[in-house]
């Protein structure tokens, strides 16, 4: 059964909950390993593009497939996983594998991917220059402050010749792993959700695709440099608590999220700023 105390604990542990789960009166009755999969499938998602894609499925595909889908939006990258772990929601859709691996390791959660749906290329943006090589010596760049996205941001800058990272710097790379910094760039670590908002205060910012789109930025058009989609490990997927992969509602949603209809929706709506991964 859904437990209000568990929900309160998860929210307090994670910090402020942008959209309150306690108002969700129709949450799942199932827990990991349970055979009771009655009721709507409640999915936690970032507003853009994840919730938009889920809303398309809900309005256009779910009824015919016999799926009762409920979408809960969150602005942060923590509560969707903690809520999935404690059963407050049935699944989530917002993250990639390196982020999930790091989250599970640090927080002791048991979230697993079900199906990969899309890639949001990370981009470098600026209100002050129009080309990356126009950044002045000593320029300040805002980067996400969580381990995986900061490393991803630094690798984007390294791939475009702005910095050099030491050999072997992987998904936990930090500015301390920079071996060459010809422009003497400085880095301001901010919450991922704040990177787009920081553009007026810094010379440039590396912004996750969903936050860029939410801020009215068009990654395919506006990025100074954009992450390559080729062989990317950063595809975003539908995820559940381990043991719930066989939930028939989850299987239905996974099939719908990788349907031709959803692929066309992503391509038409996001024009290369979000790329289908199937």
Automatic annotation (TrEMBL):
**Membrane topology reported for the UniProt record:** Lipid-anchor
CDD domains linked to this entry: PBP2_lipoprotein_Tp32 (cd13597)
PROSITE patterns named among the record's database cross-references: PROKAR_LIPOPROTEIN
Localization terms from the record = Membrane
* Keyword vocabulary terms for this entry: Lipoprotein, Membrane, Palmitate, Signal
InterPro entries assigned: Lipoprotein_NlpA
Q: Which domain of life is it from?
A: Bacteria
Q: What SUPFAM superfamilies would the database entry show?
A: Periplasmic binding protein-like II
Using the record, list the residue span of the signal peptide; answer none if the entry has no such feature.
Answer: 1-23
The UniProt similarity line reads: Belongs to the nlpA lipoprotein family.
Name the chain's protein. Lipoprotein
This protein's species is Streptomyces cylindrosporus
Q: What is the lineage of its organism?
A: Bacteria, Bacillati, Actinomycetota, Actinomycetes, Kitasatosporales
């Amino acid at each position: 059964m859904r437990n209000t105390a568990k929900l309160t604990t998860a929210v307090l542990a994670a910090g402020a909950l942008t959209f309150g789960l306690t108002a969700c009166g129709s949450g799942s009755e199932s827990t990991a390993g349970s055979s009771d999969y009655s009721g709507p499938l409640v999915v936690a998602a970032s507003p853009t593009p994840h919730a938009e894609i889920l809303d398309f499925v809900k309005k256009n595909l779910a009824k015919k497939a016999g799926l009762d889908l409920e979408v809960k939006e969150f602005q942060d990258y923590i509560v969707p996983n903690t809520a999935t772990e404690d059963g407050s929601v049935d699944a989530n859709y917002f993250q990639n594998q390196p982020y999930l691996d790091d989250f599970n390791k640090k927080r002791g959660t048991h979230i697993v991917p079900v199906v990969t749906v899309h890639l949001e290329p990370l981009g470098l943006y600026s209100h002050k220059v129009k080309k990356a090589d126009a950044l002045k010596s000593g320029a300040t760049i805002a980067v996400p402050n969580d381990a995986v996205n900061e490393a991803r941001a630094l690798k984007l800058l390294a791939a475009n010749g702005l910095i050099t990272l030491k050999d072997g710097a992987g998904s936990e790379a930090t500015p301390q792993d920079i071996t060459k910094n010809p422009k003497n760039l400085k880095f301001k670590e901010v919450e991922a959700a704040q990177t787009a908002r920081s553009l007026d205060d810094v010379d440039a910012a590396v912004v996750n695709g969903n936050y860029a789109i939410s801020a009215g930025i068009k990654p395919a058009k506006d990025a100074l440099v954009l992450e390559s989609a080729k062989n990317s490990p950063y595809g975003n997927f539908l995820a559940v608590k381990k043991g719930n992969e066989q939930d028939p509602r989850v299987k239905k949603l996974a099939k719908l999220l990788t349907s031709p209809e959803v692929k066309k929706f992503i391509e038409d709506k996001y024009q290369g700023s979000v790329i289908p991964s199937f």
